[in-house]
Amino acid sequence: MRILGIDPGLRxxxxxxxxxxxxxxxxxxxxxxxxxxxxxxxxxxxAILDNIREVIQTHQPDDSAxxxxxxxxxxxxxxxxxxxxxxxxxxxxxxxxxxxxYTALQIKKAVVGNGHAKKEQVxxxxxxxxxxxGLPSSDSAxxxxxxxCHAHANPLLQKLKSHEQSQxxxxxxxxxGRLIG
Length: 181
Prior knowledge:
Layout: E1 2-7, E2 12-21, E3 24-34, H1 41-59, E4 63-67, H2 75-94, E5 99-102, H3 104-111, H4 119-129, H5 138-180
Parallel strand pairs: 1-4, 4-5
Antiparallel strand pairs: 1-2, 2-3
Helix pairs in contact: 1-2, 3-5, 4-5
């Protein structure tokens, strides 16, 4: 399965693509979408949307993972980050990709083993886990870490979803049996 991870930001949006097969993961690509700050907000959001669409067309992911927005002390920054995240999510949805969301705490815990790890620790672990020659940029490392988190969580999520569907199916059959009998 090819997974696209996104670390959204209004100035810098990181992306990372990995190939996952069981517990084996392999680096495919990563980068940072740098959005000119002098553009009006709507053009900045469109730049994020267009660039993520291009990444999707180029790398053809099967699934995607997106970092959830955290609420910080500045509500304006939180709102702007949410809009950048929305532009990224629209690009993913427009390409018919499933979008799984993870908090920074979940991502860091999955990659580093510590939900309060520093950015440098995430970069080093991503480099190590993907056998990269050099240290990825902070934005790329965060996006790759998001994809790695999804690669580890997805098999469990699929089992839970399958179990949930079989439970719902069983309940429907039971209800139908009561209606008939």
